[in-house]
Amino acid sequence: MIEKMELLDVDKLIEEFESMTKDAGNVQRETLKKILEENGCAEYLQNLGLNGKTDPESFKACVPLVTHNDLQPYIQRIVDGSSSPILTGKPITTISLSSGTTQGKPKFVPFNDELMETTLQIYRTSYAFRTREFPIENGKALQLIYSSKQSKTKGGLIAGTATTNVFRNSQFKNTMKAMQSQCCSPDEVIFGPDFHQSLYCHLLCGLIFREEIQFISSTFSHSIVHAFRTFEQVWEELCADIREGVLTSRITFPSVRSAMAKLLKPNPELADLIQKKCLGLNNWYGLILELFPNVKYIYGIMTGSMEPYLKKLRHYARDLPLISADYGSSEGWIGANVNPNVPPELATYVVLPNIGYFEFIPLKENVEEAKPVGLTEVKVGEEYEVIITSFAGLYRYRLGDVVKITGFHNLSPELKFICRRNHMLTINIDKNTEKDLQLAVEAASKLNTEEKLEVLDFSSHVDLSTNPGHYVIFWEISGEVRDEVLEECCNCLDRSFVDAGYVSSRKINAIGPLELRVVQRGTFQKILDHYVGLGAALSQFKTPRCVGSTNNEVLQILCNNVVKSYFSTAF
Ligand code: AMP
Fold first, then answer.
1. Centre of ligand 1 from the C-alpha of residue 328, in Å
2. Does residue 1 surpass a pLDDT of 50?
3. Are residues 81 and 154 in contact, defined by beta-carbon separation less than 8 angstroms?
4. Which of 40, 47, 377, 500 is the most buried (most CB within 10 A)?
């Protein structure tokens, strides 16, 4: 049992957040000062002629906007073991691998204690607001979290995904305890070497502790949907393990087996109960509540590229609240969800003004000429690209995310995540983002619900090997769907890209008919496996929505698994 006194003081956390956001402008100036003072001796800043100045005006005048590519040579020297202050005052000892699922391959970004502390700060902040609305009791959480392999770089630094670096930090566990959010699975499962085996054991632990589970979470909600889709396949095996008290032979790693052996005892009553519940469900509707009767909510990032999984999540969760988790990246955290009552489709994130220095490039203007504005200068209704200056050696770093300002919480803006900037379908004058693609897929998949058409996952590609080039949309679907329906879906996809550049190009055939390619069941699992093989963790996995020609391996997986293809006749 957790002592009451160990729990976080929710009122105090909310009060601190309120007073900080009321003073967002000053807090930003102070934060920048702190970052520049702590890291002023770093070679990167020394070379930019700041000469000890720490005010935003001098900072903007001296320090250029950069992308990851610009910083790559500096980061590489750190990775290779140089211990001189390159990007930060204190040497970097840990490297995060970004998921790479947005870019094609993982990027290295510095990780340090300050980044860990900002991570915990954002966890605590959103927990405080969440708990006020949806209190939980002492119990456990089914956290579908996975650690990637941690390796050593050539220079001896520890490297793993950002989530791995966080989960492995001792403070993570303490904070989870204080947030009544202890994972029901043992460490050996979270850090198990094979995520298929870890996933199975997470589900098994969840069932063993079913009465105690207070909420279900993951970093990105894809992992939750993925877990319950897997449950549909393995539930009988799980029941058999519970009945006999013996773990299936599919779990082969000795550390995982011995950790699970401590939890697993023969329990035929529980096995019977789960079996009865599973057999009583209609197409698994409401599965989560049946399995975990005391669950209060589902928690994980549900916006952006996670939105397409909401439908399936609602199917499993029935009327349980779905709460989107916070907004951040391997490079640093940005905002907390302090309105947990809002459905995920409308979720926004309030920037924490002391976790970094933030600027925003207005997207209305020509981006190359547009001047970034400060945190408190953004305008409601406008879209911006996010620029981060962090405590971990990134200065005026273009994150590549597009956000829209939906309002202010005190003086700090509320951001709605829109899309990644570089995820763009474009052939000539057309520009369609990941969000446009998502809307088109939503429209087309709604066309014929009687056919039981379910789009399990999707991606896209610009095919320039044809003349003219054309958009290709890949769908993995479940259920038997007639060709006529898919032909209509293909036309609907084509018509749903309403961007004027696309429509006019289609009308004069400067862009060819859109092609819908249906891929075999399991294709997106192969893509996931591919990324995990590259060192990505399932926890941070995001299906690549637009696959460029340079991402040859993923493109090959998609193209090699096509079972049917349709060309639009919409224009
Ligand atoms: P990673 O490459 O794994 O560090 O992922 C970071 C990226 O995930 C961000 O730059 C965003 O594009 C996306 N992301 C993170 N949090 C959210 C969120 N709350 N909503 C939508 N997208 C998010």
1. 6
2. no
3. yes
4. 40
Q: Looking at the domain assignment, is residue 351 inside a domain? A: no
Ligand 1 binding pocket (C-beta < 6 A) is 98-99, 102, 162, 301, 303-304, 327-330, 399, 401, 417, 420, 540
Question: What token pair was written down for 512?
Answer: 């060819």
Enumerate the H helices of 105-215 as residue ranges: 113-133, 162-167, 170-178, 187-190, 195-208
In this structure, the answer to whether residues 141 and 280 fall within a common structural domain is yes
Structural domain of residue 231, as residue ranges?
Answer: 135-150+161-320
DSSP 435-446: HHHHHHHHHHHT
What whole-number distance in Å separates Cα of residue 190 and Cα of residue 201?
Answer: 9
CA angle 290/293/295 to nearest 5° reads 110
Same domain, 231 and 272: yes
**Residue 358, strand partner residues:** 388
Cα-only R_g, the chain = 24
Is residue 105 one of the residues assigned to a domain? no
Residue 174 CA to ligand 1 centre (angstroms): 25
Pocket test for ligand 1, best of 338, 542, 543, 546 (most atoms within 8 A of CB): 542
Provide the number of structural domains found in the chain.
3
- Does some domain include residue 343? no
Task: Give the percent of the chain with pLDDT over 70.
Answer: 96
What are residue 408's DSSP bridge partners? 413
Quote the ligand 1 centre to 448 CA distance (angstroms): 32
- Which atom in ligand 1 lies closest to the alpha carbon of residue 330? 4
Residues 464 and 557 in one domain: yes
Question: By 3-state DSSP, what share of the chain in percent is helix, strand and coil, each rounded to 5?
Answer: 40, 20, 35
Name the nearest CA neighbour of 408 among 382, 385, 383, 376. Answer: 376
**Which pLDDT tens digit goes with each residue over 148-176?**
777 888 889 988 888 888 988 889 989 99
